[in-house]
Design a protein that fits this description.
CATH class of the largest domain: Mainly Beta
Order of helices and strands: EEEEHHEEHEEEEEEEEEE
Strand content: 25-35%
CATH topology of the largest domain: Immunoglobulin-like
Number of strands: 16
Low-confidence stretches: none
Structural class: alpha+beta
Number of helices: 3
Mean pLDDT: 86
Distance between the termini: 47 Å
Largest sheet: 5 strands, antiparallel
Shape: globular
Length: 232
C-alpha cells in the first residue's frame, strides 16, 4: 500500500502501487520497479514476524482489560507519525506492539503496563567512529535525554548498509546491533559495537538509535553517520 500526500497536486508518495515503488532520497522523490525479495523468509524477517505474533497473542490472552484500556489511552494521548512525517492516530494494540517490539530486542520480558506518561521519550545525540579494518563502531558517550546513570534508560542501535561517500541515497537494510543501558554502574565510553555489515575505508556508515526512558516511552529515530577508516 502506498501513502500519498496531497497538495495542489501530489506532494509526496511512499510505498507501492501495482508494479511501481515510490520513495525519497536526499535528492528528492523517485520511483522504481517494485521488486520482490529473493528470500522473504530470512532469519531476521522470521524473527520480526514471531515477535509481532507473540505480542498480538499476549495482548489478547494475557493483558487484563484495564491494561488494554491503559494502552488505548496512551495511544490516544500521544502524537504518532507515519513515514511521511504526518500526524496519525493509532490504536492501543499498535502502541503496545511499537513499544514492546523494541524492548524484546534486548529483553525477554513483555512490558504489560502502558508508559507512565503520555508522549514519547526525549531526543538524544550520539556519534561514533567506524573502523573499516576491525569492523567495529566506537560509540562516544551519548547526549541529550539519555543518562548513563539512570535505571530504565536504554539506547538501541541499528546499522544500515554502507554506502559510497557522496552518494545521495536513503540508508537501507538496517539491522539491530546492540543496546546500551543506563544503570547505577555507568557504562564506560567509548563503547565498542560490532558493525552488522562489512565496510570498506571511505564508505559512509549510518547508525539509527531509538531511546527508551524510565517511563517506558520510546523516542522517534535518531541518526548519526561516519566515514569508515582504519583504526587509529
Amino acid at each position: 500500500m502506498a501513502l500519498i500526500k496531497m497538495g495542489g497536486g501530489i506532494t509526496d508518495i511512499r510505498g507501492s502501487i501495482g508494479g511501481t515503488t515510490f520513495s525519497r532520497c536526499a535528492g528528492g522523490n523517485y520511483m522504481r520497479a517494485r521488486t520482490k525479495p529473493v528470500n522473504p523468509r530470512s532469519t531476521l524477517q522470521s524473527a520480526r514476524r514471531a515477535r509481532i505474533g507473540h505480542l498480538t497473542k499476549y495482548w489478547s490472552n494475557t493483558l487484563t482489560a484495564q491494561q488494554r484500556a491503559d494502552w488505548k489511552a496512551y495511544a490516544a494521548g500521544t502524537s504518532w507519525q507515519n513515514k511521511l512525517g504526518e500526524t496519525i492516530e493509532i490504536n492501543g494494540l499498535a502502541a503496545f506492539i511499537r513499544v514492546n517490539a523494541l524492548i524484546l530486542l534486548y529483553s525477554s520480558t513483555v512490558l504489560a503496563a502502558a508508559p507512565l506518561a503520555m508522549g514519547h521519550a526525549g531526543g538524544v545525540t550520539f556519534s561514533f567512529a567506524a573502523e573499516s579494518d576491525t569492523s567495529k563502531l566506537q560509540l562516544a558517550e551519548p547526549g541529550g535525554a539519555f543518562d548513563k546513570t539512570t535505571d530504565g534508560h536504554y539506547l538501541m542501535f541499528f546499522g544500515g548498509l554502507p554506502s559510497e561517500a557522496g552518494r545521495a541515497a536513503t540508508p537501507k537494510g538496517f539491522r539491530y546491533i546492540t543496546h546500551v543501558a543506563g544503570a547505577a554502574v555507568p557504562q564506560n565510553f567509548p563503547y565498542e559495537m560490532s558493525a552488522p555489515y562489512t565496510m570498506a575505508s571511505g564508505q559512509l556508515i549510518t547508525v539509527r538509535a531509538m531511546f527508551k526512558d524510565e517511563s517506558n516511552r520510546i523516542s522517534g529515530p535518531h541518526w548519526a553517520t561516519a566515514t569508515a577508516a582504519p583504526a587509529a
